[in-house]
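Marked as duplicate of an earlier ticket. Keeping the data here for the record.
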Amino acid sequence: MSTPATAGHDAGQTSVPAPAAGWHAGPAGLPAGAWAAGPGPAGLPAGAWAAGPGPAGRENLVLELVQVTKTYPGSPPVPALRGVSFAVAAGELVAVVGPSGSGKSTLLHLMGTLDKPTTGTVRVTGLDIAALSDPELSGLRASSIGFVFQQFFLAEHQTTLGNVADALLYVGAGLAERRQGAAVALGRVGLGRKLTARPTQLSGGERQRVAIARALAGHPAIVLADEPTGNLDQATGQSILDLLAELHADGATIIVVTHDQAIAARMPRQITMLDGRITADTAPRPATPWPDEGGERLAARPGQPPLTPQEPQP
């Protein structure tokens, strides 16, 4: 996948949502209120975002997919996802693993709000992405999702500090706050002494650390890492995986998309895909999706379709 980390973040068109109740107040070092710069996606009722994702008791779910399909037009049409259902809670470290053509990239697009499902529901921090306009999706993406790609996508004319600070443009922080937040994020990934270095002066592993800092700078609800070690040698790749584990231990919610079974095995939870379907999910406990509009959706095990009211719960 070759989508830049700021895909869909169009300055002047983005309506930046304020965080839901219970999310981080903002990047360490930013003044109170800097994070909640926006009133919520345009068109949403006042207070709808701040009320939190879903009914009481389900606030910890940051991502939910329910019976999601994605079919690309053609002769014949190409089904990329076939009834995918799972939920991710805040603080999880999850691997989505499968061979080429299994549907991983399509799933990444949907989780990152870069595309919408053909059928089914994708919710990010409680918001149904199919119900949002493009500016609203850009706002949700800017405030709630961090991207890490194997190609890094760093601006070579910018310093490391500038690359990370630019990510905070979309959450409404001023210049001083952006720089301060970027310095804190770079410190978290071990690059506090290289704030003025340019990408051409960094190793591959250091470039990926800058990309991770950029993804974390706005304290998103979810970080999506697409083959984060794909362009790195084995030793450097291991150091990046160690860093992701450390960030997870600090409370970050991270989903790693990979074809590598060895990388997936390092994650506490693995979701295995094949031919557009989830074939295995190692989640140790049921995840609880939000109810639908009629209040009829019940708990389902990750990777399985939700139960109907007539079926017994597991």
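See parent ticket for discussion. The first strand starts at residue 61 and ends at 72.
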